[in-house]
Design brief:
Blueprint: E1 14-18, H1 22-33, E2 37-41, E3 55-57, E4 71-74, H2 79-91, E5 95-98, E6 111-115, E7 118-122, H3 129-140, H4 146-161, H5 165-181
Parallel strand pairs: 1-2, 1-4, 2-3, 4-5
Antiparallel strand pairs: 6-7
Length: 186
């Protein structure tokens, strides 16, 4: 299966997480970090949900609960319920994550490595989250600090304001500095 690697701006969009266990908690935290407005629907929820800025509905999730959700995560402990919720979410055009069966998902959660505004996402394209996490840890050690990235961003903005040969020279100098710092041949 071929996947589209993309970063989406879904800030402020509604999301529904069906399930209240550890997997649902991790997915909810990821959605909150991206700025989504999350509603968690589950008969019982992990105690850590109480400190999150989410709406909790303590009952079994039904397809009607998914109305208007742009993102749906099915992470209950019942595969048949997850399947039913995913089918309903697909019908309404939502991005869907089936926590127990990636083949039924249109959305997967990669391992994400961050340094300031710099983000690197790693997905194995398979059910190997341990590999993605290990690769993420290795990549993390390679990332420049956020101050350096901010400095490069400012240099780029200044270079783009240049005209004529000065612009290309400034961009070449920045490209060389970045590549040298990252240990990549210029």
């Amino acid at each position: 299966m071929s996947l589209l690697a993309a970063f989406l701006n879904l800030s402020g969009q509604p999301a529904v997480v069906a399930g209240g266990g550890r997997v649902a908690l991790r997915r909810t935290q990821t959605l909150l970090e991206a700025g989504l407005q999350v509603t968690v629907v589950a008969p019982q929820v992990h105690p850590e949900f109480s400190v999150l800025p989410v709406t909790v509905v303590q009952r079994s999730c039904e397809p009607a609960d998914l109305k208007d959700a742009q993102v749906v995560v099915a992470a209950t402990n019942d595969p048949a319920v997850n399947d039913r919720l995913c089918a309903a979410a697909h019908q309404q055009g939502a991005l869907v994550n089936h926590a127990g069966d990636a083949a039924l998902s249109t959305l997967r959660f990669p391992a994400v490595i961050s340094s300031g505004d710099l983000q690197v996402a790693v997905s194995t394209g398979r059910e190997l989250p341990m590999l993605a996490q290990a690769l993420g840890e290795r990549i993390s050690a390679l990332l420049p600090d956020s101050t350096t990235v901010e400095q490069w961003s400012r240099q780029r903005e200044e270079a783009l304001r240049e005209t004529g040969p000065g612009r290309e020279l400034a961009l070449q100098t920045l490209r060389k500095d970045i590549r040298t710092t990252m240990g990549v041949p210029a």
